Backbone:
C-alpha cells in the first residue's frame, strides 16, 4: 500500500521561505504526477500546483506562481515544494497527492498534511 508523508512546515515570517518535502513509500514517485494542495481555516481545499511525471510539465496556479516551485529527487523518492516570499494568506495545511494517470485529477494517494503558518 502506497503512502505519502509531508514535512517541512512551520511558522515563518512574511517574506520568508519554506521547503516542503513529500516522501513516498510503497511506490515509485517518478511514475506519478504529484499535486500540491492546501486548505486554509474555514476554506475549501484548493490545488495550487501539479508536478507532472518527469520531463513533462509543472503547473502552479496564479495565487502562487512565481513564488512556489516544485522539484523531484527520484533517487530519494521525494518531491519538494519550495515556497518563497510567503504571505499571511499562504497559511494553510499543505498536502501532496499522487496521480498515476499524470494530470493530478484522479489522485491515488494522499499525505496527512503539514501546517504552514505565515505570521509576524
Residues:
Amino acid at each position: 500500500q502506497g503512502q505519502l508523508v509531508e514535512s517541512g512546515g512551520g511558522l515563518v515570517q512574511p517574506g520568508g521561505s519554506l521547503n516542503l518535502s513529500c516522501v513516498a513509500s510503497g511506490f515509485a514517485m517518478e511514475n506519478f504526477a504529484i499535486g500540491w494542495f492546501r486548505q486554509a481555516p474555514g476554506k475549501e481545499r484548493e490545488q495550487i500546483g501539479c508536478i507532472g511525471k518527469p520531463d513533462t510539465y509543472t503547473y502552479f496556479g496564479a495565487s502562487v506562481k512565481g513564488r512556489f516551485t516544485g522539484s523531484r529527487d527520484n533517487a530519494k523518492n521525494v518531491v519538494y515544494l519550495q515556497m518563497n516570499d510567503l504571505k499571511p494568506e499562504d497559511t494553510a495545511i499543505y498536502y501532496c497527492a499522487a496521480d498515476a494517470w499524470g494530470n493530478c485529477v484522479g489522485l491515488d494517494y494522499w499525505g496527512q498534511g503539514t501546517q504552514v503558518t505565515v505570521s509576524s
Notes: The chain has a mean pLDDT of 96.
